[in-house]
Design brief:
By secondary structure, this protein is mostly helical. The chain has 5 helices and no strands. α1 packs parallel to α3.
Length: 149
């Protein structure tokens, strides 16, 4: 197999894992949030990231990406930190939004790294760019929500 293809698959798998982390992270935030509206918001964000995965896989059917991914060890540590923070914090909702923003910042960095690959297929690059922009807009919305809570 061509080394460029292996590298592209590896980069795309990194994004798949980031989205798996986001799905689990948003579900964890929903578990830890107190307010029902915020719980529903986080669950909706988890579904949105599942759609991101499906869209990415559909854009690259010839590549081997996203099979049996459980996220990253760093993502698992972040979710554990969310539990600890929720346990010790009196402001669960605000702290869960802070962690969502932190996770989204890491995702945007990963997306930017993958977009820097000049060998990335056009369809995949378009989907990744669109998803990155969506996450950036979502971070701004989360910051506004954080001001309200």
């Amino acid at each position: 197999m061509n080394n460029d293809i292996k590298e592209i698959e590896s980069n795309l798998n990194d994004i798949v894992q980031k989205n798996e982390d986001a799905i689990k992270g948003y579900k964890k935030a929903a578990e830890n949030a107190k307010e029902t509206g915020l719980q529903n918001y986080f669950l909706n964000k988890a579904r949105e990231r599942r759609n991101f995965l499906n869209e990415l896989k559909a854009s690259t059917p010839a590549l081997d990406i996203g099979n049996d991914m459980d996220g990253t060890a760093k993502g698992a540590m972040h979710r554990t930190w969310m539990d600890i923070k929720a346990f010790f914090s009196g402001e669960n909702d605000e702290s869960m939004l802070e962690e969502a923003i932190r996770g989204d910042k890491a995702a945007v960095e990963e997306y930017n790294e993958v977009l820097a690959d000049i060998h990335l297929p056009i369809n995949a690059a378009s989907v990744i760019r669109k998803q990155r922009n969506w996450i950036v807009q979502d971070m701004e919305a989360n910051k506004k929500l954080e001001d309200v809570i």
